[in-house]
Automatic annotation (TrEMBL):
InterPro entries: Metal_resp_DNA-bind_regulator (IPR052509), Tscrpt_reg_PadR_N (IPR005149), WH-like_DNA-bd_sf (IPR036388), WH_DNA-bd_sf (IPR036390). Pfam families: PadR. It comes from the Bacteria. Residues 17-84 form the Transcription regulator PadR N-terminal domain. This is Transcription regulator PadR N-terminal domain-containing protein. It comes from Dactylosporangium salmoneum.
Length: 104
């Protein structure tokens, strides 16, 4: 399976895009708004579209037909699998970190 770590500096934006698309298909601006609501920070267009391009190359997301000159994207089955694996990995890491803090 393709991992998000292969995306280098785009791995965090890629994760946020996958989380956004897990809810429903969205175009770039809608993803920016959703990510801003989730994190408090809005990704810039270069970061967003760079990550989108890489996610498309890895077939984790796919573009849908244009709607009013907007290009919506959706999560693929492979993308859903990659997102789930990454979230499980993060949950395990966070759980260990929180447990270690509690004993410190």
């Amino acid at each position: 399976m393709t991992g998000l770590s292969q995306l280098g500096r785009f791995s965090e934006p890629a994760l946020l895009i996958l989380i956004s698309l897990a809810e429903s298909a969205k175009h770039g601006y809608a993803m920016q708004e959703d990510i801003a609501a989730l994190t408090g920070e809005r990704p810039g267009p270069g970061t967003l579209y760079g990550a989108i391009r890489r996610l498309e190359e890895q077939r984790l997301i796919e573009q849908l037909p244009e709607e009013d000159r907007r290009k919506p994207y959706r999560l693929t089955d492979l993308g859903a699998q990659a997102l789930q694996a990454e979230l499980v990995r993060i949950r395990a890491m966070a759980s260990t970190g929180l447990r270690r803090l509690a004993t410190a």
